[in-house]
Structure formats: C-alpha cells, structure tokens
C-alpha cells in the first residue's frame, strides 16, 4: 500500500506507508501549512462538530457539501502547527523535501490556497522531485480534485495522513478493523474527487456513461464493506462488554491513561506495570488498548489501561471508528491525563485532550494531571513545577524514563479512587485461620501486629471489600458504640 493510498474498499494491507515501493526509499513530500486569519463557521472536526453541524443543518434546512473546514478556536499558531505536522510525516516514514506556508484571510473554495500559490507549489514539487504534496488542513472533494489536476504529484490532506499512520501501527484484528472503517468512511464521499488515482476509464466522448456506472459500482462495494466492518466491530464490542462484566464481578477498578499523542503514555505504562509494550517517539505508536494489573501503596489492585493518543482536529471518522477502543476511557474510574512538561504548547494540547474527553462524555470523571518528561527541563523550570505540585489538587510531576515521581503518582491514584475505599480497622484473628491471615498480608497494609494467646491482633488499612469478608474478626469498641447511640437519641 503506497503512502496515503487507502484503496477503494479493500482491506488495508501490510503497513508500508512512507516508502516508495519501486525504489525502496522514503517518499519525498512538500508540506503546505495554511493559516486562515478569518475563522470559518462551517463544520468543526470531531464528534461535537458533527453534532453542531447537524443542528445547524436542521435549523437552516441546507448546508453545502463542499463547505470549507473551519479552523479550530484552540489551534496552534502556524509555525507550531507546521512543526507538529512535520512530526506526523516522520511518523509515516516520509521525508520532507520542502515546506510552504500560505496565509489567507479566507480559504479559496477551489484550491484552498489560491491559484498563484498552487503554481508556486507545482514548481517546488517539480524541482525537488517530490512524490506527494501534504496539506496541513482538510481538503474538500472539489479542492482535492483541482489540486491533483494542477500539481505534478499526488495530494493528501491532514486526515489522510493520520489515517495512513494508523494503518501502519494497527497490529490487532480490532485495530485493523477500526482503521479500515475510518478509511472507508473518509473515502466514500470523495470518490469523485480522487482524480487520476480513481480513474477507471479514459476520458473523452462516449466514456461518460460507463464511467458513472463504475463510480456507482465502487460506491456500492465500499458501502457493503463498511456495513460488514461495522458488524465485525459490533462483535468486538460485545466481546469487550462480556470481558468487562467479568472484571466487574471482582471489585478491581480501571484507571486509563489519556493524553496527547507522544506525551509518553506507553513509557509511563511500562514503568508502572513492568510491561514491554512498544514505546516510541513517533506519533500514534499505540493504537490497540492494553490492560495490566498493578498494586497501589494501599495494597489495592487496579487495572491500568493504555489508550490511543489524541491530537488536534482529530478526524471525526477516527473518533467514531475507535469507539470500541475508547470505551476503556468511558468505563474507567479515574483518568491519568499524561502531559508533556517539556512541550512549548502544553496548554493547547491539554485543551485538545479535554475536547475529545468531552465528546466521550468523560470530562466529569476524576482526573489526575501527570506532567511527564521533567527530566528534559532545566533546573529553574523543574523548581516551578515542583512548587505547583505541592498545591492542593496540584499536578503530579514525573519522569517515566527515569522513574522519578512514581511513588507520588501511585499515592495520588490511591486517593482518587472512590470505589472500594480504604478503611482503618482492628482485627483479632485466630492463628489457626491461616487463609485469613494470608489474605490480610496480601491485600492490606499491616500497621501493628501483636499476639495474645492463640489470637493475632492487627491494626490494618485495607479495602472495604476485603474487610467485609473478615468482619467477624473486627474488634468493636463497645463503649464508643454506646456513646454514639446515646448522642443520636439526645439529638
């Protein structure tokens, strides 16, 4: 599968994006950044934007199919956006041949960037022998068709690039199905805009009828494949639900790692769990969710989930296609929002993550802000972060690479969990009940242990579920109980 070529409804093949199959070399790309100074009120990317667009369409009764995508109100500035786009190209295995920035008041309906800029890019692509031109912006079908006709190489937009990266990194059957669904849903309305890459017949008099017939055939094939993939994903969702129900029969809460792509979630996951999942500086290295059990300082067990990273203007097709994976976020009791402390635009990244959490109806969940990669900061910056971490509800400062701050993070998770709370208690257990004593040592923190004849007296802190099973051994302060009852009667 060539770089960015999602096919015409066929299942995505082995990941080979970013490599020219004929020469075995990385494909060379011209990057085009676009900065619009007047923000459009057209449809916004993401699930929330789709809902807003649908509401506006219901109110007005009409909406242009080729309306230009809007610029997000929390977008980065042009240079930072282009730097992030450059990282995406690197993650796809491409090589940057040249970069072009276009600043306009409004998007050009025909080409997004204007006829003059198209001519300039055509010259740059020819002189650098570029294999493709990548736009850091979504293109409408009309814009894509016009640009492919005017430029000497293939044209891809931001969403196509992200989809290609996802196709490279999907390893499990579930991940491959989700990527394929996103590719097909993105491609379906753009069949007429694919230009030369989708041509089935030569142009000219007498070919229009058969061409339209072939186009409708392609649409039907893609729609049938979309329906089949959705059925397959629904089966995956049912299996996940059954697995989750089995887990819920045992009180083990789930904590999910969320955050911007390349914030260090997988490295942190490996540090906390001892797992060996792939950790990479490339964006979207993790697509398939992973669960591992870890023990907290209170001796409680939790399941830690590593999830796909978010990014600004995350394509709506990906949010919906990865619903099965993101259900781990929806079902988690606590979210660990992992942030890159060394990033120069951390607040913008935080805003984008919170936007996606809002689309998943998970913004109200207990959330711990984890500032990662502090080992990359200078002494003065570290001091500022450490001071902030001492405040109530402050961030937890860690370095997943060096292990700094892991104890503080585990304690913060312990405090944030609200199910199966930790309770202090005194127990008096017969020495012959070895099973109960073993359960106490395995699942509770023992503060004091004394022996009184054949009894073991313990002062412990442990989960309410375990103490409930040992309630017959709990020592009650009868005087305190009588006093409390008397106070209640008086009042």
Low-confidence stretches: 1-17, 40-75, 193-211, 477-491
CATH class of the largest domain: Alpha Beta
- Over the alpha carbons, how many angstroms does the gyration radius reach? 28 Å
| CATH structural architecture of the largest domain | 3-Layer(aba) Sandwich
Sheet/helix structural class: alpha/beta
Give the CATH topology of the largest domain: Rossmann fold
Overall pLDDT level: 76
The strand order across the widest sheet is 8-9-7-10-11-12
Q: Which word captures the global form? A: elongated
Q: Termini distance?
A: 77 Å
Q: How many structural domains in the coordinates? A: 3
Helical proportion? 40-55%
Multimerization state:
single chain
Got a strand count? 15
Name of the CATH homologous superfamily of the largest domain: GTPase HflX, N-terminal domain
Q: What do you see in this structure?
A:
This protein has 491 residues and is an alpha/beta fold. The chain folds into three domains: 19-222, 3-Layer(aba) Sandwich (Rossmann fold); 253-416, P-loop containing nucleotide triphosphate hydrolases (Rossmann fold); 422-490, Alpha-Beta Plaits, CATH 3.30.70. 42% of the residues lie in helices and 18% in strands. It is built from 16 helices and 15 strands. The strands form four sheets. The chain has a six-stranded mixed sheet, with helices on both faces. Strands 4-3-5-6 form a four-stranded parallel sheet, with helices on both faces. A three-stranded antiparallel sheet has the order 13-15-14. Helix 4 links the parallel strand 5 (132-135) and strand 6. The longest helix has 41 residues, at 208-248. The chain is elongated.
């Amino acid at each position: 599968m060539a770089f960015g070529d999602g096919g015409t409804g066929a299942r995505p093949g082995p990941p080979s994006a970013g490599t020219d199959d004929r020469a075995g070399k990385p494909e060379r790309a011209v990057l085009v950044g676009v900065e619009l100074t007047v923000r459009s009120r057209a449809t916004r990317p993401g699930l929330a934007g789709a809902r807003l667009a649908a509401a506006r369409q219901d109110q007005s009764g009409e909406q242009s199919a080729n309306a230009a995508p809007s610029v997000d109100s929390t977008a980065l500035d042009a240079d930072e956006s282009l730097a992030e786009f450059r990282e995406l190209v690197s993650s796809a295995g491409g090589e940057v041949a040249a970069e072009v920035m276009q600043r306009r008041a409004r998007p050009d309906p025909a080409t997004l960037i204007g006829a003059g800029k198209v001519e300039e890019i055509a010259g740059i692509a020819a002189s650098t022998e570029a294999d493709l031109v990548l736009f850091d912006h979504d293109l409408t079908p009309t814009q894509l068709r016009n640009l492919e006709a005017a430029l000497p190489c293939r044209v891809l937009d931001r969403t196509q690039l992200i989809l290609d990266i996802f196709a490279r990194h999907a390893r499990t059957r579930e991940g491959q199905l989700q990527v394929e669904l996103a590719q097909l849903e993105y491609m379906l309305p753009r069949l007429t805009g694919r230009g030369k890459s989708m041509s089935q017949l030569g142009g000219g008099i007498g070919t229009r009828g058969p061409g339209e017939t072939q186009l409708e055939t392609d649409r039907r094939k893609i729609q049938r494949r979309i329906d089949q993939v959705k059925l397959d994903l629904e089966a995956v969702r049912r299996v996940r639900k059954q697995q989750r129900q089995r887990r819920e029969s045992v009180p083990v809460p789930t904590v999910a790692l969320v955050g911007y792509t390349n914030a260090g979630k997988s490295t942190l996951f490996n540090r906390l769990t001892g797992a060996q999942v792939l950790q990479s500086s490339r964006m979207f290295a993790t697509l398939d969710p992973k669960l591992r059990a870890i023990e907290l300082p209170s001796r409680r067990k939790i399941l830690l989930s590593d999830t796909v990273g978010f990014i600004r203007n995350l394509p709506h097709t990906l949010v919906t296609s990865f619903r099965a994976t993101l259900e781990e976020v929806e079902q988690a009791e606590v979210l660990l929002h992992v942030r890159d402390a060394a990033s120069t635009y951390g607040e913008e990244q935080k805003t984008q993550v919170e936007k996606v959490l809002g689309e998943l109806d998970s913004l109200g969940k207990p959330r711990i802000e984890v500032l990662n990669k502090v080992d990359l900061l200078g002494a003065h910056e570290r001091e500022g972060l450490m001071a902030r971490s001492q405040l109530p509800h402050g961030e937890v400062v860690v370095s997943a690479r060096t292990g700094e701050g892991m104890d503080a993070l585990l304690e913060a998770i312990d405090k944030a969990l609200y199910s199966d709370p930790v309770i202090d208690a005194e127990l008096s257990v017969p020495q012959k009940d070895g099973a109960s004593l073993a359960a106490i040592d395995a699942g509770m923190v023992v503060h004091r242990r004394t022996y009184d004849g054949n009894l073991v007296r313990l002062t412990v802190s442990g989960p309410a579920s375990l103490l409930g099973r040992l309630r017959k051994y709990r020592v009650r302060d009868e005087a305190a109980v009588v006093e409390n009852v008397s106070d209640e009667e008086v009042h």
